[in-house]
Task: structure prediction
Amino acid sequence: MSAADTQARPAAPVGREPYATERVRELVTPEGIDLKLRLAEMSERATAFLIDGAIIIGLLLGMTLLAFLTLVSVGRSSVEITAIIWMLMSFFLRNFYFMAFELTPRGATPGKRAMGLRVATRNGEPLGFDAIFARNAMRELELFLPLSFLFVYGREVGGWGALAGLVWCAIFVFFPLFNRDRLRVGDFVAGTWVIRSPKRALELDLAAGERATSIVITQAEADVYGVRELSVLEDVLRRKDPETMRAVAARIRGKIKRAKAHGETDQAFLEAYYLALRTRLEGRMLFGHKRRDKHDKA
Amino acid sequence: MKELTLKSHRFRKEREAEWRKLEDILARAEASSAKALSDDEIIALPVLYRSALSSLSVARAISLDQSLIAYLESLCTRAYFFVYGTRTTFLKRIIAFFARDWPAAARELWLETVIAVALTLLGVVVAYMLTTRDSTWFYSFVEPTLASGRGPAASAEELRSTLFSEEASGLSIFATFLFTHNAQIALLAFALGFVFCLPAAYLVLYNGMMLGAFIAVFTSKGLGVEFGGWVLIHGTTELFAIALSGAAGFRIGWTLAFPGSLSRVEAMSAAGRKAAIVMTGVVIMLGVAGALEGVGRQVINDTGVRYAIAALAMLLWLVYLYVPREDADR
Result:
């Protein structure tokens, strides 16, 4: 007993948690609470960027069409003002689209919003204009230089030159894959990172619903499992997939050696078991025992 | 019956209304800005935020409902970024930038700026000497498209005609083009500084060399003074801006190589932000330079006036950026 108490366990494998814990960073607020920030995955950031890119290109095409139509309908007198507006707009779109959106309280471009991401400083300070400018000005190096190299200079410098250029560009394009915090060069220079900040709805408390109370789970039966099994069970009950529920119910019944009662549905059984297990575990938690999983005998 | 005994459920029932209220305020604040909120809500926000934080802390201790904890976690994070986010208005930020941040950042980068200016001058002198000795050097420094007929082969009369313009149409297009083009180059010079300063140094040096090659060609035809007026009317602003962008690039490249007493990551973000402020100023300066070049130079065809404007612009920039102010250092 005491040996089990003091024995240091290896950190529980991540299992069915929705995010790998290696992407979780702690932010301690001035109030002393540690908020768990989850870094954005590369795939999410790439998707967000593609959305933003599509918006920018769409706007550029729209503007060009509009300029063309103006020239056709108004005639040559409007050429000067149209050209100026077009040039300035494309300059601002290319350089300030990202900056303008990241300056808003939401700290995210439309693409990032769609993916539930936001930009934040790594030390928790307010996100200032200087940081936003720095992280976006670096896009010249990470994106526009490789692009112009690919389409313009690549043809002029010949095979070896093109290869060297490609390697050089690849260093910056794939920079985020080579560091722990998934920083691109702009994030590195500006002291920022991109985190997940999705809006989550408050879901129903599974312990709250009305239910048939005919199923009684004894304390001994509830003592079979720990916190990890409880969270798996919570997932199963929220998804309500009949196949999974049947398999899980059969598994639990087997474990606690209990036959399926007449007229008892799998869902009702699982809900009753969830409630019993949660009551038991939370009760023990109040006395300082948090039973990690079924192997935790403490 | 059991529901009543479950503490975590009772806890949730008691606090839920507050969370919903915070969520509602946040949703509106994020959608537009703090202006969308009433005074009562502004006052309530920090209180609700702290209460949500304490709820999170309690929930972690007593509840095993993981969806509840995830909800509170996301609610608190959103509230944190709003409560501790930037509270100043856009206008105040702009005022602070011009009154304090930009000159202070430029002063802090003085050494890099001196180096960038020295590199530009070095480029000018080297290209001038080489081109004066052997005029074919000109083609190594200036691309044919940029030279557009101006070169060692052109006659004095042809060169003179490029310096003074008669017609004045399409000026603002030209100014806009120059601004966007130069600003893009400056941003590139800044970003390239990241690669241990070298590409940024090359850009600054090359910029000086082009100028030197042109000076050599025009001086050899006895048009040196006129060319000076033609190039300096906007050149004092533009060359200074390019030098500043090179300086900003040097700062981040140098910090990457030699971070000093801070860790490399921390030193980089401090240097990057400082350099970014300077770069914002550079973009503004290039806008001014574009206007001077595209409009001022085409309208003003008197060399003396051109020099006067050039000197005035330089003086204004130097005074604005480098003369210490009392409130600037606070």
User: Anything to note?
Assistant: Chain B has 14 helices and no strands.
